[in-house]
Structures are given as C-alpha cells and as structure tokens.
C-alpha cells in the first residue's frame, strides 16, 4: 500500500502487509479480485481531508487521528424486535446461525465462509456498489473497508422473511477498532427487514452493500448510542418496482458519519431515508446522502431530524441527482434541527441536480430553538422546564421515527428515543 501505516492503523486493529495476506488468513480467497480492485481505488481516492467538498463540515481527523487508550466494554445493544432472528457479533466476529435459518428463505455466511454459498451474485457483488460512484465522489474510507474488511455477513434472501433479522454487536473493549463489510442480495419479489444495533468496537468503519431486485423490498434500521467514533457507508441499488427503506436512530455518539448512496436503476422504484439523532456533550453527527434517479416514475424521500444541546454539532448533506431519462421523478428532502441551547450548531447543505424536465423535486432545511407558545402552554399546565423540553423534543423527533413503516418497530424506537433523551439531558 502506498498509504503510510500510521494512517491505516485507525482503520483496522492491525496493519496487514497486503489486503490479500489478510484475506488468505481468514479463508476468504473468493474475494481476492475485489480486494485488489479496492486497493487501487484507495490509492486513487486517498483518505478524505477537509479540502474535499463533502468533508467541509466534518473534519475526517476526528476519525483518522482518534486514539482511545482504554476502550472498555460498550453498553449492550438494545434489541427492539422481540420476535427477531438474532445474529450476535462479539468484538466484531459474528456467530453464524445454524438450523434456525432453515426454511426462512435466507442464507447467511461470513466473509471467511462465503465459499459455502457457492458461486453467486452476493459474492460477485462484494465492493461493486461501493465502486460504482467513486468517480463522482471519492470515498476513500469505504474503499479502505472493501480492501481490509475483517468480517461481515453475506446474506441472500429469496422469500418474504416474516421476522426481522437483528444484528446485535457487543464489544468487550479487547479490540479498539473494527472493519465490517456486509453484502445483502434481496431476490425478485423477496422482502427483508434488517435491524443492526450496537457498535462492534469503540472505533469502527462499516460498509453495507444492498442489491434489491425487481419487486423486492429491504428495510434497514440502524441503532447506535455509545460514545463511539464511527463511519458507516450504505450503498443500495434498487431495480424496477423495488423498494429500499432506511432509518437510523442514534444518541450520544462521539463522532459519527452516516453515508447513504442509493441508486434507483429501474422504473417505479422507491427509496425512503430517515434519521433521528439526540446529541450533547460536544457530540458530532453527520448524515450525508446521495440519491440517484435513473428510472422513470421513481420516488425518493429524505427526512432527517436532530435534537442538539451542550455544544453538539449536527451535519446534513443531501443531494438528489436526476438523470436525463428519469422523467416523472418525485423527490423530497427535509432536514431539521432543534437547538436546545445556544452552544449547539447545525449545518445543512441540501442539493438538487436535475437533468430531466418533467419532475417534482423539493428540498428544505430549518433550525431553531423551542417554540415559545407550546413551551409556555406546557409550563402553564404544571410541567417543569426539563419535562416541557423533553415533550417538545420527542414530538419533534417523532416526525422522523414515523417514517418507519412497521407500527411495532416504530413504537419500540420511540420508547428507546425517550429513554435515551432522559439519560442524556
């Protein structure tokens, strides 16, 4: 690698002599070609700096230069779905399911055991969606992940899984950093709900690639609430009539960047992206989104809300790109922040880039403090200042949580947000 070891070290718990050496050690020789290509992309893109357009508001040094002398164990991940099929990772190593997945229409392997699935689209997809938009926006951290990922899941779904698939991360503090890479293939007409909860390590770099075939749907919910330093990059490709829904709920994360790149390749495809964040104690939280419309009659929706206090900083960068042939596109984007005190900060960069002439696209962004009239009303009913603030803040966040389609999951997420708000205020 041309990149120096002191830069690579925060990206992984060790510095392998090469991507192939790491791969061979873990028995994942099937991914050698993809890792070679990722190594070239990393050398071309380099690692991000503040000079990069999409890192203007977030200093990548917060991730690249971070050191944690005594990591310690992280809190247990919350399980919001009681009827889910649970997969547990301990210190970023997954415990793979046995017979519990039989008859579900879902097949799962790890990076080191991917050959057991046989030759298929899920293996061939490793790194492909991450590579697809590198020329448009260089993503060195995602390329580094494809090159050096230590573990992760290969998931194939060809049915309608009735229960959510819940990935629960626990970290003892033995490893300070982790690199996970998931590849998910949702076959035609299939339906899959994935909930990822917790953090694999105090510092983590995660990539999730999702292929959604014709008429299929995938719902991804991500939950994080520990003082961690993390980058997560989600890349999704949606074919004709497919749907991709993503929601993230996080609170108290030290430094967090959540990148989402969704390409609507087929006609009548839909994507809905939403997120809610509760921040304080100088937390830094960045949502960066790119939605690319290529098919006709496609719909995209983005709703992101952040509650910030105690010098917390929230970032939202969202772009809707409409290609020339993507006529009858419906694109919507809103980002909002509730600033509980004057020390909090919200920076937003909404963008529309449209090359078709028959579209309905809009974007908006707002930030401000608590509304005086409802605050006064609650105080006049006998509530103290903190309780009135909490009610208004949670009502504000509910606008993003309501984007979750499943009623039960939506209720569990709101309860979790309520608990986290009380703990962090």
Characteristic key phrases:
10-stranded mixed sheet, single chain, 10 helices, 425 residues, globular, 9-stranded mixed sheet, alpha/beta
Description:
The chain is α/β, with parallel strands linked by helices and 425 residues long. The longest helix has 18 residues, at 407-424. Strands 2-1-5-7-9-11-13-15-17-19 form a 10-stranded mixed β-sheet, with helices on one face. 21% of the residues lie in helices and 38% in strands. Mean pLDDT is 88; it is low at 9-25. Strand 1 and strand 2 form a beta hairpin. It has one domain. The chain has helices at residues 5-8, 19-25, 32-45, 61-64, 121-124, 128-132, 140-148, 372-380, 385-401, 407-424, and strands spanning 85-90, 93-95, 106-110, 153-157, 165-170, 177-186, 191-197, 203-212, 217-224, 229-238, 243-251, 255-264, 270-279, 284-293, 299-308, 313-322, 329-339, 345-354, 359-368. The N and C termini lie far apart (45 Å). The protein is built from 10 helices and 19 strands. The chain is globular and about 65 Å long.
